[in-house]
Amino acid sequence: MRTAIQESILKLLHERRSTYAHPLNSQAISEVLNITPSYVREQMSLLQRENQVAVRRGPKGGYYQVAKEKTLRLQWNDAVTEHEAGTFLHVYQQLLQQANEAEQIITGLMINGVEVLPDSVAGMAHTEIAEAVVQTKPMPEFAGDLIATALDYLPNLQQGLVRIANLMQEGREQEAHELFLQAVDGLEWLDSCLGGLGGWMAQKGDTTLQQLHGMYQGQLSDLSELMEQKSITEISDLLEYELSETVANAKASLSELQSFLDTVGKES
After folding, report:
1. Tens digit of pLDDT for each residue in 213-245?
2. Angle 244-267/208-229 helices, nearest 10 degrees?
3. What is the pTM of this model?
4. Please, how many CA atoms are within 13 Å of residue 141, restricted to the half-sphere of its CB?
5. Is residue 44 a contact partner of residue 102, using CB atoms and an 8 Å limit?
6. Quick one: which of 22, 25, 20, 21 has its CA closest to 9?
């Protein structure tokens, strides 16, 4: 039997329309009910055992009422289907396999109204998922968009790496460091780009990008070690003569892939 304070907590969660997307933290609840945050957390633990509330972890986390719906609503692009509650992972894996066979790639995923990364699905509490929206694109279309972005960006990245090296050689390490921090996201993005496109093309028998990706990852590993050693001269040489050349080679390889995709598109 629930206590009066537990009933008050559930009533507040209901009135505030608490959901996974919009949870209430213990501080907010304590201020409304005039109790301590620690006491809120203690009561929440009891309510969680009864499956009355659930918790969303993280900086914007908090508590929310467990949905009473007995179905899972899944929207895959424009198709909407309903399934038994708690079956999200099973249904998702089946549809994901179908998407892979049809060369479709996930470009957007929302779980209970919150945008999430596809890689995070395995670690979710699937029994609490009541709604999922998945958007996909044909892999050739996705690849074309990704390549267009890369061809526009890579010349800037290459110039930036050379500029960083020059600043290091001139002894302007602070400026070089600040510029390098701006380049880090670009280096990581290119790693992901080459990995994804390289794996896709390798399935078609072309390992050019995959091999380039392996070389690039080796250079990034070398860069990390040199930065720990604070070897300015070697870092400068790696940026100017190796990484910048690999970025240029990536641009050339992606240009060839773009031409291939354009040819295939015209033929189809």
Report:
1. 999 999 999 999 999 998 999 999 999 999 999
2. 160
3. 0.66
4. 9
5. no
6. 25
Residue type, 208: T
Query: pLDDT tens across 60-77, in order?
Result: 889 998 866 568 899 999
CA angle at residue 125 from 124 to 128, to 5 degrees?
125
Are 47 and 40 a contacting pair, CB within 8 Å? no
Residue 152 burial (C-beta neighbours within 10 Å; 0-12, 13-18, 19+): exposed
CA distance 235 to 228: 10
Residue 12 tokens read as 């507040």
Instruction: For tokens 């070389």, name the residue.
Output: 215
C-alpha closest to that of 86 among 67, 58, 100, 107: 67
What's the CA gap between 147 and 153, in Å, rounded?
A: 10
